[in-house]
Amino acid sequence: MIRFIIKGLLRDKHRSRLPLIVVSFGVMLTVLLYTWITGFLGDSVNLNAKLSTGHVKVITKAYKENMDQLPIDLSITGSKSLLEELRKDYPHVEWVDRIEFGGLLDLPDSTGETRSQGPFTGFGVDLRGASGESERLNLNKILVEGKLPSTGGEILVSSLFAKKLGIKINDKVTFIGTTMYGEMSIFNFRVSGTIKYGSVALDKGSVIMDISDARKSLDMEDACNEILGYTDKEYYDDEKATILMRSFMNRYKDTGDRFAPVMLRLRDQNDLGSLIDYMTNVMGFICFVFILIMSIVLWNTGLVGGLRRYGEMGLRLAIGEEKGHVYRTLIAESAFIGFTGSLIGVTVGMVISWMVEKHGLDFSGVLQNATMLMPGVFRTRITTESWFIGFIPGLVATVLGTILSGIGIYRRQTARLFKELQ
Amino acid sequence: MLTGQPSGKELLSLIDRNLVASSRVMTARMIVGGARGSRTIEFNAWTEGDKRSFSEYTSPAREKGTKMLKLEDKLWIFSPSTDRIIQITGQMLRQSVMGSDLSYEDMMNNGDLASHYNAKITGSDTLQGRKCWVLRLDAITDNDAYQLRLVKVDQERLIPLSEELYAKSGKLLKRIVLSDVKQIQGRWYPMKMVYRDMLKNGDGTQFIITTLKLDEKMPENIFSKASLK
Question: For the whole model, what pTM was predicted?
Answer without folding.
Answer: 0.71
